[in-house]
Amino acid sequence: MNRNVLPVLVLLFALVSLGSCTKRERHPMASEGLRGEAAVNLKGFHARPTPDGATVGAIFGTITAPLGDTLRAVKVAPDVAEKVEIHRIVQNAAGQMEMRPVPWLALPEDEPVELKPGGLHVMLFGLAAPLQAGKTVRLTLLFQDGGERVLEVPIRDE
């Protein structure tokens, strides 16, 4: 009977040893994505006011994902804008700067990703009304892990 127990004990020891080699959660919000709220830090989000008749606007801010993630989509209510996209400013073949949509945005572990004028940003197309200083826009960020974050983005002069 002892000959049968030894292989089982060796296997059990190996499994326990391998389990201790896995990557541990480093951030207290790591499980938040499992409950529907993405484990990301959002800082300085704001939109700039737009003039009367403007059909586009932009939102800026900084996203940090302590465990890494991917921003898959952004949404606003239809009474704010018809379409929302993540954009990047790039130089084209003629040397001119132009905006290009980004299908998704990688968020490296613990590295802030800045959404700013002249770089990555959130574009609002088909504005229903001008973005007015002192008001807010409700923005929803959808992440790869299934989590999402909803925030009230202040509209302010920068």
From TrEMBL:
A Pfam entry, by short name: PCuAC
SUPFAM superfamilies: DR1885-like metal-binding protein
Alphabetical list of InterPro entries matching this protein: LpqE-like, Lxx211020-like, PCuAC_sf
Taxonomic superkingdom: Bacteria
PANTHER family xref list: BLR7088 PROTEIN, COPPER CHAPERONE PCU(A)C
Name of the protein in its database record: Copper chaperone PCu(A)C
Organism: Eiseniibacteriota bacterium
